[in-house]
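Worked example 2:
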Amino acid sequence: QVQLVESGGGLVQAGGSLRLSCAASGRSFNGYPMGWFRQAPGKDREFVAAIANWAGANTAYADSVKGRFTISRDNAKNTVYLQMNSLTPEDTAVYYCAVARYSSTRLRDFDVGYWGQGTQVTVSS
């Protein structure tokens, strides 16, 4: 019954912004790092961003999105967000929400315990 449901994807013009949301249900994941991965057509799934599970949480980002994307979470809502600014066609991909398999783990490219179904982000030139 554990589910991660993404929303906020869609079609946007280059230079535009989108805000993705991921709402978890079935149990609380407040004690676990959460983050986002993406998979572009013809490419492997890659790490995008992560946020730690403690107050004053640390964050980690892929080099390709640093300065443009911001990850945040609302533990009261069991939800994680990804604010994406200055989007380019290279950001076009299916974006997947993820919860870390272990409570204490590295943030960058963490081992995943649960995946969302994914939401399509398409950036037009």
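DSSP finds no helices and eleven strands in the chain. The radius of gyration is 13 Å.
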